[in-house]
Specification:
The complex is a heterodimer of chains A (106) and B (235).
Chain A lengths: L3 H25 L7 H7 L2 H15 L10 H17 L2 H17 L1
Chain B lengths: L1 H36 L4 H11 L2 H12 L4 H11 L2 H13 L4 H9 L3 H13 L5 H12 L3 H14 L12 H13 L3 H16 L7 H24 L1
Helix pairs in contact in B: 1-3, 1-7, 1-8, 1-9, 2-9, 3-4, 5-7, 7-8, 7-10, 11-12
The chains are: A mainly alpha (106), B mainly alpha (235).
Main location (chain B): membrane
GO cellular component, one term (chain B): plasma membrane
Family (chain B): Belongs to the AzlC family.
């Protein structure tokens, strides 16, 4: 059983902390110019963070207890291929989901 | 005229983000179910989702609390999962930094993976857009997401374990992220950054508190920046 006081400390602490992380540059740097070297790194934030977030989930899914799963690997590959080639997010998601559903049905 | 442009930016954001509603619904429901399983009441689950609005960090905190980890460890681990938000904040600053402080605070609170990824692709594609147009797009792209995150947390908490969370549903979030990455891979530097970050994420997965994610992301960003710097030096 989770203790009530602790729970609310975590909820509020995590809320304040998460807001601080989201606000730190946007709020404090604002419209001051950042050095070109920093800007150059920032342009690659999305394409670095998102793959790093996803990759371990694709290779070692929690649902299979960390065992690599051909259906999930296939679904990820199809989604990436369509998203890159067609640049169409919904179609890529539907194709990935279709592979999963087909795999579950097999 | 300007307001018409801003309005259409807002609605473009809404349209672009609509597919993610389908992903947020099961994810939020799952959080509600897991939190009610852990003994949280509806108000507590909703409070969690409103205060934090970050799925991965919420699941991490809940799991650690169930394992009776010390409060400081719970906070530190869950915040480490959210450190990527500081990277998003930095990356959004050149685009939204000119807004008044209160709008920047609103944008900060509403910075999520999905609308961040959509917005950054849109801002880089449509460079002529005004700051207010960009802010409108940003708000538009969070509209089909945040309310559903709150709402379906409540649904999950109310129905509890009545919903079967079986095969494949765990993979909705990875699929959505992969689909978002695709359109952003529009240069060799972007593709190499993604590749390095992916491989590094697998190599550093053993690191505690999700630090592997940050190391991998840092390496990816350094790779992209270095390729760009060399290309400029040659030009």
């Amino acid at each position: 059983m989770i203790e009530r006081t602790e729970l609310w400390i975590v909820i509020l602490g995590l809320g304040v902390g998460s807001f601080a992380l989201r606000f730190v540059f946007l709020g404090l740097v604002g419209n001051r110019a950042m050095p070109p070297a920093v800007m150059r790194h920032l342009r690659y934030t999305a394409v670095s963070v998102l793959p790093a977030l996803v990759m371990p989930l694709v290779v070692w899914p929690t649902a299979t207890g960390g065992e690599p799963d051909p259906v999930r690997l296939g679904s990820a590959a199809i989604t990436l291929a369509i998203a890159t080639l067609m640049r169409n997010v919904p179609v890529a998601m539907i194709a990935g989901a279709a592979v999963l559903i087909f795999g579950a049905w097999l | 005229m300007a307001s018409v442009g801003v309005k259409s930016s807002y609605w473009k954001g809404v349209r672009d983000a609509l597919p993610f509603t389908l992903v947020i619904i099961p994810f939020a429901t799952l959080f509600g179910v897991v939190s009610s399983d852990a003994g949280l009441n509806v108000l507590e689950s909703l409070g969690f989702s409103i205060a934090v609005i970050a799925g991965a960090a919420q699941f991490t905190a809940l799991q650690l609390m169930r394992d009776e980890a010390p409060t400081l460890v719970v906070l530190a681990s869950a915040l480490a999962v959210n450190l990527r938000m500081a990277m998003y904040s930095a990356s959004l600053t050149p685009h939204l930094g000119h807004l008044p402080l209160w709008k920047r605070a609103v944008a900060a609170y509403l910075t999520l993976d999905q609308n961040y990824a959509l917005s950054i692709v849109e801002f880089e594609r449509n460079t002529a857009q005004s700051t207010s147009g960009k802010f409108a797009y940003f708000l538009g792209s969070v509209t089909p997401i945040a309310p559903f995150w709150y709402g379906f947390t409540v649904v999950g908490a109310l129905v509890g374990s009545a919903i079967p969370m079986n095969t494949g549903l765990d993979f909705a979030m990875p699929i959505a992220f992969i689909a978002m990455i695709g359109p952003a891979l529009n240069s060799g530097a972007h593709r190499m950054a993604a590749l390095v970050a992916s491989v590094a994420a697998l190599l550093f997965v053993w690191m505690p508190w999700n630090f592997g994610l940050l190391v991998a992301a840092g390496l990816g960003m350094a790779t992209g920046a270095e390729i760009e710097r060399r290309a400029e030096a040659r030009a």
